[in-house]
């Protein structure tokens, strides 16, 4: 199926922005006068990092999600811990965040600072880098609302309970999303980020070896897929990593939903989207239409980017993304 034109995507985003009133201080072309080339600069860095390491795409997208779900989209996940202050990135739920994501944002920030010192927040650079990682991997290009400030705190203890977990039920996942102002459609659409990237064996081992008494393997999992995963993740073996999507691992696409239809969701939280009657219609619709998937994803990721935005005295623009000013 042919991909929708850039014009169609931008019109869809414009409509979404009109219908959904979000963070008041965000706007398109926020840096038009203070750093007009910021998007070109960030995209160039993401393209370079993506060419150097396949993990760049998934890790950068995941970094944006983890940032927004904890204290809002404010770059707080980028802060390094200091003695006596364990930061968000060192919370147990964030330890699997890959180096490539942090490195991409740090490099993009350095390039932006060289062109426009003190003008662009790390939170906005992360939002742009995530968009570019998606678009450069075949996903939809969309305009990013900008104007976020960087948060003034980053505390590991603020992370537990804020992020969706692979073994949660649909109701638990929905509760996490709704707590951040997101809905069921957002849950199903944003889960497609699992179209790229890798996951540790420990995140899905229970589905292979200890699903429930008398039934070691999750019955919703395709038997051939389960056998393949057991070959990659022996019971009690090292915590290796496996591609989230074996069919098109480097493409951000709706193959993710077709995998779910075939019992090929890697995480339990993935396959639930197909087995639950409330979310299955969306899985089927987006598996069958790239255009419909793109529209739903763009709408959802724009809404995600409005969560917990900092403005005024709530934040500032960091000189470096991993330390406070």
Descriptive overview:
This protein is mostly helical. The chain has 2 domains: 23-163 and 305-316, Orthogonal Bundle (Peroxidase, domain 1); 170-299, Peroxidase, domain 2 (Orthogonal Bundle), CATH 1.10.420.10. 45% of the residues lie in helices and 3% in strands. It is built from 13 helices and 4 strands. It has helices at residues 6-19, 38-52, 55-69, 99-115, 122-135, 170-179, 184-190, 205-209, 223-232, 255-261, 268-275, 280-288, 290-304; strands spanning 150-151, 198-200, 241-243, 315-316. Strands 1-4 form a two-stranded antiparallel ribbon. The chain has a two-stranded antiparallel sheet with strand order 2-3. It is globular. The chain starts with 5 loop residues before the first helix and ends in a 9-residue tail after the last strand. Mean pLDDT is 92; it is low at 1-22.
User: How many helical stretches?
Assistant: 13
Shape summary:
globular
Low-pLDDT runs of 5+ residues are 1-22
**How many angstroms separate the termini?**
48 Å
User: What is the CATH topology assignment of the largest domain?
Assistant: Peroxidase, domain 1
- Number of structural units classed as domains: 2
Spell out the helices and strands N to C. Answer: HHHHHEHHEHHEHHHHE
Q: Provide mean pLDDT, rounded.
A: 92
CATH class of the largest domain: Mainly Alpha
- Please list the strands of the largest sheet in the order they lie side by side: 1-4
User: Which structural class fits the helix and strand makeup?
Assistant: mainly alpha
Largest sheet: 2 strands, antiparallel
> Total strand count, please?
4
Radius of gyration: 19 Å
Helix share, percent: 40-55%
């Amino acid at each position: 199926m042919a991909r929708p034109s850039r014009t169609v995507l931008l019109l869809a985003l414009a409509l979404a922005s009109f219908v959904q009133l979000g963070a008041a201080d965000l706007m398109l072309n926020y840096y038009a006068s203070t750093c007009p080339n910021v998007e070109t600069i960030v995209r160039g860095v993401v393209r370079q990092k993506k060419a150097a390491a396949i993990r760049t795409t998934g890790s950068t997208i995941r970094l944006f999600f983890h940032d927004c779900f904890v204290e809002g989209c404010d770059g707080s996940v980028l802060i390094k811990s200091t003695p006596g202050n364990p930061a968000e990135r060192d919370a147990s739920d964030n330890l699997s965040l890959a180096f490539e994501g942090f490195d991409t944002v740090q490099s993009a920030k350095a390039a932006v600072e060289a062109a426009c010192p003190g003008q662009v927040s790390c939170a906005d650079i992360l939002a742009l880098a995530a968009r570019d990682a998606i678009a450069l991997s075949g996903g939809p290009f969309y305009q990013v609302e900008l104007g976020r400030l960087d948060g003034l705190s980053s505390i590991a203890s603020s992370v537990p309970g804020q992020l969706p977990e692979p073994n949660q039920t649909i109701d638990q996942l929905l509760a996490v999303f709704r707590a951040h102002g997101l809905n069921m459609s957002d849950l199903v659409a944003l889960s497609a980020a699992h179209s790229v990237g890798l996951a540790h064996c420990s995140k899905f081992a229970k589905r292979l070896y200890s699903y429930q008494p008398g039934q070691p393997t999750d019955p919703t999992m395709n038997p051939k897929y389960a056998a393949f995963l057991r070959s990659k993740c022996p019971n009690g073996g090292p915590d290796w990593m496996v591609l989230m999507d074996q069919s098109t691992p480097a493409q951000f696409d709706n193959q993710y939903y077709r995998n779910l239809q075939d019992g090929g969701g890697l995480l339990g939280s993935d396959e639930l989207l197909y087995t639950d009657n409330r979310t299955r219609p969306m899985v089927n619709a987006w598996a069958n239409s790239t255009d419909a998937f793109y529209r739903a994803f763009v709408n959802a990721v724009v809404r995600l980017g409005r969560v917990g935005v900092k403005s005024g005295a709530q934040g500032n623009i960091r000189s470096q993304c991993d330390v406070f000013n």
